[in-house]
Specification:
The protein is an alpha+beta fold. The chain has a domain at 46-219: Penicillin-binding protein 2a (Domain 2), CATH 3.90.1310.10. It is built from eight helices and ten strands. The protein has helices spanning 3-28, 32-43, 85-95, 114-125, 144-149, 165-169, 171-174, 214-219; strands at 44-49, 56-57, 63-75, 107-109, 130-140, 153-156, 159-162, 179-184, 197-200, 208-209.
C-alpha cells in the first residue's frame, strides 16, 4: 500500500470518528433534553383515574343508591404477544377454568380479590398480555320504591352519568370527575416502573339526601291501575256497529 492511499484511509477514518464524536457531544449536551422529550412524547400515554359517583340517601341517612368498584382481568393479546405455557398454568392455578381461547379484549375473570391482584402482579410486570380493568356498578337497596324512582346511569367519557330518575334529577351533585395520570409504556404496552405522573386528582361525587324516609317512599308507591269499564254511549251519540258507513244494515 503506497503512502498516498494510507493517508487517504486515515483521513476517511478520522473524519468519521470526528462526526461520531461531535454527534455524541450533541446528544450528551444541547440535544439531550430534546431527544428525551421526543421519546417520552411517543411512549408516554395519559389515562383516567375513575372516581366514585355520589350516593343517594333518605332523610334519615340510610343509603339507598351507591357505587361499587370491581376489577376484571382482560386478555390483552394482539396476535403477536400471547400467553406463554407458564402464564397459562399460573392463571389456571389461580382461577381454575379460564377461557384461554377467548379473543383480544375478552374478560377472563371478574371481581378480582385483593389476593388475586397481588398474585397477578408478577405476570403484569413481566409483560404478559393481560390487563386489569376497573368497572363501576350502581347498586340499589332492596326496595321496590327505590328501584322505581332511582333511574339509570350510563358511562360517558369514563364516568357514570344520570339518564333518568333521581340519577338525572341530581346529576350535577352526584357526578364525579375522573382524575388523569400519565405513564411510559414499553414495547409490550406495559407500564414502566417509576414513570407514573399525576396530572389531576379524581374528585368523587357528592351525596344527595332526599326529603323523605325510605318508609315514606314505599308508602307513596302508586296503586296499580285498574281497567275502567267502557262508558255506555249516550242516546245522542250513534253506536258504531260492525257495518261500514254506507253499507247495508
Amino acid at each position: 500500500m503506497n503512502s498516498g492511499r494510507f493517508i487517504l484511509m486515515l483521513a476517511v477514518f478520522g473524519a468519521g470518528f470526528l462526526v461520531c464524536a461531535v454527534r455524541g457531544c450533541r446528544l450528551a449536551g444541547p440535544e439531550r433534553e430534546a431527544i428525551i422529550a421526543r421519546g417520552e412524547k411517543t411512549a408516554r400515554v395519559r389515562r383516567n383515574l375513575p372516581a366514585k359517583r355520589g350516593r343517594i340517601l333518605d332523610r334519615e341517612g340510610k343509603v339507598l343508591v351507591w357505587s361499587e368498584i370491581y376489577f376484571d382481568l382482560c386478555y390483552n393479546a394482539d396476535g403477536e404477544n400471547e400467553l406463554s405455557e407458564d402464564e397459562q398454568q399460573t392463571l389456571i392455578a389461580l382461577f381454575g377454568k379460564v377461557d384461554l381461547q377467548a379473543g383480544p379484549g375478552a374478560v377472563l375473570h371478574r371481581h378480582l380479590t385483593p389476593g388475586e391482584l397481588l398474585a397477578l402482579e408478577p405476570l403484569l410486570r413481566r409483560g404478559a398480555p393481560l390487563k386489569v380493568s376497573v368497572r363501576h356498578e350502581r347498586m340499589l337497596c332492596s326496595s321496590d320504591a327505590v328501584r322505581r324512582l332511582a333511574g339509570t346511569v350510563e358511562v360517558r367519557h369514563g364516568t357514570q352519568c344520570g339518564v333518568s330518575g333521581w340519577e338525572l334529577e341530581h346529576e350535577l351533585t352526584l357526578r364525579s370527575v375522573p382524575g388523569e395520570y400519565s405513564v411510559l409504556l414499553d414495547r409490550f404496552g406495559k407500564y414502566m416502573p417509576k414513570s407514573f405522573r399525576m396530572i389531576s386528582k379524581p374528585q368523587e361525587g357528592q351525596d344527595v339526601r332526599l326529603p323523605q324516609t325510605l318508609e315514606e317512599l314505599e308508602k307513596e308507591q302508586p296503586e296499580p291501575k285498574r281497567e275502567q269499564p267502557p262508558a255506555e254511549p249516550s242516546a245522542e251519540q250513534p253506536v258504531q256497529t260492525g257495518s261500514e258507513e254506507g253499507g247495508e244494515a
